[in-house]
């Protein structure tokens, strides 16, 4: 029987190859602040840096990556959802 961590590892193998430069844990935050914090973090980072964003607010699961792409702040490299949390890896453009 697989543990949650092993299950996460097996489903998320390509994201294991992504080495983030910064982690932004937004668990407990709601929209629109989830996007605002992600945007500010990306603006502070250098081009081609990787931001890992952790979310637990369901609306933010789609709003954050869509807004990042719409405002051309970065490229969503990978997304992974497990146990009501979503992790997104974003490469700053």
UniProtKB/TrEMBL annotation:
SUPFAM superfamilies: SirA-like
InterPro entries: TusA-like (IPR001455), TusA-like_sf (IPR036868)
Superkingdom of this protein's organism: Archaea
Name the UniProt record assigns to this protein: Sulfurtransferase TusA family protein
